[in-house]
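By convention, each integer encodes one residue's backbone shape. The lines below illustrate.
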Amino acid sequence: MKKAVHQDSLSAPSTTISSGGDHAQLAMPAGVPKICRGECEAALIIDAAGHIAAGDEAAAALLGRRSEDLPGQHVSALIRGLPFDPQTPGYNLAYAGFHGGDGVWMRHTMVVPEGREIAVEVSLANRNRDGSRCIVLCLRPPASAVGWEA
């Protein structure tokens, strides 16, 4: 896998991802590698406006949905507390850059189809995908939770 690191005024350093290498480990579309190595149980790719572009089977299962139903949904409809607004893509990328970084986990609440709210930990990372900036959202049950329901 080829990686090129660069930095712009909106975010911390990001990685350009090209096809090949270990992307099959995540069962995501070609060109998406395993981002949060060893800690990411599930992952979503979010565009700069906050819409889900792709998600792996583990993310779909964790969210109680089918993976083919994820693309196009706004992430804030599924995970509460993320300040991603479709009108502020620059802010969204900056938020992911400054509050994310590989390995930083934050606790949020996800909404499952029957309307229940369940705790989830989220890690954010900015990446380039197909020539556009995107946000990789890694998900996992809270590490400190016993039953992990909110």
Notes: The two ends are 39 Å apart (CA to CA). Helices lie at 57-63, 89-99. The chain has two helices and eight strands.
